[in-house]
Each structure stands twice: as C-alpha cells, then as structure tokens.
Specification:
Blueprint (H helix, E strand, L loop, with lengths): L6 H32 L2 H12 L2 H15 L1 H26 L6 H24 L1 H8 L3 H29 L2 H20 L18 H14 L1 H31 L3 H28 L2 H19 L5 H15 L2 H12 L5 H13 L2 H15 L1 H19 L12 H5 L1
Helix pairs in contact: 1-2, 1-5, 1-6, 1-7, 1-8, 1-10, 2-5, 2-10, 2-16, 3-4, 3-5, 3-9, 3-15, 4-5, 4-8, 5-15, 6-7, 7-8, 7-11, 7-14, 9-15, 10-11, 10-15, 10-16, 10-17, 11-13, 12-13, 12-17, 16-17
C-alpha cells in the first residue's frame, strides 16, 4: 500500500478555488455591466436567467461526459472554454468598441458559462473520493474543505471584483476571471490520481441520452437523493434572484459597487465558517437537523432584508445565511458520493447539480418584473414566504432521516 499523499487533493482544491474566484468576480461584473446601461432589473434578470437556464441540460451532459471521457480531461477542457468566453468581453470591446457589449451579448456569454462551467465542477467533485483516500482523509473532511474553497473564493472574488470595477471598469475586470481559469488548468494538468483518466470501455456511459436517463433514474429511485434534489431545486430557484438581481439592483441604484461585493463576501464568510465547522458539527448534531435549519433561517433572514435595513444589518443577515448554509453542501456531497457507484458518479453528481438550478430561470422570470413593478421590498418578501414554507414541510419528511446512520449501522 502506497504512502498517503495530499498533493492530489490540494491540486483539486486549488483548481476549485481558482475557478470559483473567477466566477465570483463575474458574479458582480455581469449584472453591473447590464445595470450600468439602463438600470433595468428586467435586463439584469435576462442575463442572470441566461446564466442559469442552460444549467439544467448542461449539467446532465457534463456528468455523462465525465463518465465517458475522464474527469481530468473534462476539467481542463471546461476551464479552457470558460476562460475563453469571459475573455471575449474585453476582446469584443477592443475590436468593436464598448458599444458592442450589449445586453444580448452579455446574455449569450453568460449562457455559455452555464454550458461550460458545470463540466469542470462535476469533474473535480467526482475525483474527491479517490483524492481523500490517497490523502488518508475522511470523505466528510474532504467535502468540508472542498466546499470551504468555494466560500473562500466568493469572499475574495466579489471583493476583488468590486475593487476592479471601481478602478479598471467592468469590461477589463474580465481579464482577471480568464486568468483564474488558466490557473485551474495548470493545476489539473499536473494531477496524478487513480480514476482521473478515461474509464475502461466496459464502464463508460452508454451515450449522451441513455447516460443521462440512467443518472436521472438512479437519483429518482434513491428516496433520500430525490428528496434532497427537490428541496435544493426549490430553494435555489428562490435564492438565486436575490444574489444575481435584487442585491445588484439595490446597490446599483445607490452607486455602491463595493457594498455589493461586501454583501456577497458576507455570505461567503458565513458560509466558510459553517463549512469549516462541518466536520466537527457532524459529530455533535445530526445531518438532518443541520440541514433543516437552513431553509428556515434563509426564509427568516430574507423577510428581514425586505425591510431594507442599514448596510450593517444586511451584512449580518448575509453572514447568518452563509453560516447555516455552510454545512449543507458538504451534506449533499456526502450523500451523493456515498450513494452513487463509481461508474455512475459523474452522472449522479450532474443530475443533483442540474436539478439544483432547474428552477433558477423561473425565479428570475418572477423576480425581475416583480421588482420593476412593485419594488425591492415586496420582491424580497414574496421570495421569503415559500422559503419558510419549504422549511416547515421538510420537518415532516421521513426520507431525510436517512441522512444519519442508525446506531446499529454506525457501530457495525
């Protein structure tokens, strides 16, 4: 048996950090470019919707591609394409002038990100069990650190993005995002890990359509995966407009790009704290209780944000949301990776990811017009009510008890 090596897991974590930081910058750069033109929340919703609409299909395809072509290869290809599409913003501005960066162009480029990014995310997550085993770490610990990198990235990314927008402008900010994808490519290129290459022919996905169907059928037949996917679908659809439309709209009207970065950073700082606490928390609290606290807290905090309180209060509520949601992603990762067989892992991860974003376009279709028609206060409140309802209903779902092994199972 070879000696433990942490190099593979560190490379995967670094790649995840780099790409997420780049996307964190884009998270405020894209809506900022849109809202600078005319201040329309509907236009911001169009671009945000374009960034989420392809996710339902692209993440399903991504899982099949990962299982067919190999995790390392797909991660590199995905990052190359994602880096090219953000670099297209300043390249178009240089070649055709700033007037070429229209809402339509931004929507297309945002949609391409939704096509390319999921494959890289799915590929890297699918390598975690082997990387954890090679490092001699538990999967809970590895999942916690993996999700923590995203929170670190979304602390650094929006903050850097806000500063860059204020100094070099939104268009030139995209060069930094493109560079971040280049760093991820470099890290994954030198990765040496069992299971990272193309699988044997006998274990490959049958084809794009049959591969997707098999992944969907597997998730649907495993009750706890089905329940988690549906909860995540609803909550993500309600939450995404807050981050991508409502907060940008609020801070753009106040001409405070740095404060938008601070709000997103507060979400990620809280998330980082919650994620890092997860390996300890899971020994003291059940996964079910930890999961159930999240939608209730998110709904309550969103209702309070609807009052549009002072910035310090908004930042505190964002931090609290991040804190309770920090452990949720590692819980999802743990269940997904432990319930899926290795030859289906990419497809199961892809299905779980795609369902998480399936309701995003509906949320944007509701939030944009509602904001322009009734204002931010009403829209925040309209989103908060179903969040709280989902949290209450989830208390009665017996399938969530499968998140925690029984004493007999854990002692055996």
């Amino acid at each position: 048996m070879s000696a433990p090596s942490r190099r593979p897991v560190y490379l995967i974590l670094f790649a995840a950090l780099a790409t997420a930081a780049g996307n964190g910058i884009s998270l405020i750069a894209f809506p900022w470019l849109v809202l600078q033109r005319n201040g329309s929340a509907i236009d911001a919703s169009i671009v945000a919707g374009a960034a989420s609409l392809p996710l339902l299909f692209s993440t399903l395809i991504a899982g099949t591609a990962v299982d067919y072509f190999g995790r390392q290869r797909i991660s590199i290809l995905s990052d190359a394409l994602s880096g090219s599409r953000v670099a297209a913003v300043p390249l178009l501005a240089i070649g055709l002038g700033h007037q070429s960066i229209t809402v339509g162009v931004l929507a297309v480029l945002a949609a391409l990100g939704a096509v390319f990014d999921p494959a890289g995310i799915t590929a890297r997550e699918s390598m975690l069990p082997e990387a954890a085993a090679q490092a001699g770490w538990t999967l809970d610990r590895t999942n916690g650190l993996y999700e923590a990198t995203f929170h670190v990235a979304y602390i650094v990314g929006p903050g850097v993005g806000g500063v860059l927008i204020g100094t070099v402008g939104g268009i030139n900010t995209m060069w930094v995002t493109a560079g971040a994808f280049g760093l991820s490519i470099a890290a994954i290129s030198v990765l040496r890990l069992a299971g990272a290459g193309p699988p044997p022919v006998s274990e490959r996905a049958e084809g794009p359509w049959s591969g997707m169907v098999r992944g969907l059928r597997f998730v649907w037949n495993v009750k706890v995966l089905r329940t988690l996917a549906l909860i995540n679908l609803a909550m993500t659809g309600l939450y995404l407009p807050i981050e991508s439309v409502l907060f940008p709209k609020y801070f753009t009207e106040r001409n405070e790009p740095s404060h938008l970065g601070w709000a997103l950073m507060a979400l990620s700082i809280g998330g980082l704290a919650g994620t890092l606490a997860y390996p300890v928390l899971v020994r003291r609290l059940s996964r079910r209780a930890t999961l159930l606290a999240a939608p209730l807290t998110l709904g309550g905090c969103t209702a309070l944000i609807s009052l549009l309180p002072p910035l310090a209060v908004i930042l505190s509520l964002c931090g609290l949301i991040g804190l309770v949601y920090g452990p949720v992603a590692p819980i999802y990762d743990y269940v997904t990776l432990t319930k899926s067989p290795p030859q289906l892992r990419g497809r199961v991860v892809g299905v779980m990811t795609s369902l998480a974003y399936a309701a995003g376009p509906l949320g944007f279709m509701l939030a944009g017009p509602l904001t322009d028609a009734t204002g931010l206060r009403t829209t925040f409140l309209v989103l908060a009510i179903p969040m709280i309802t989902i949290g209450v209903v989830s208390l009665r779902l017996s399938s969530l008890r499968e998140l925690d092994p029984s004493p007999a199972t854990s002692s055996g």
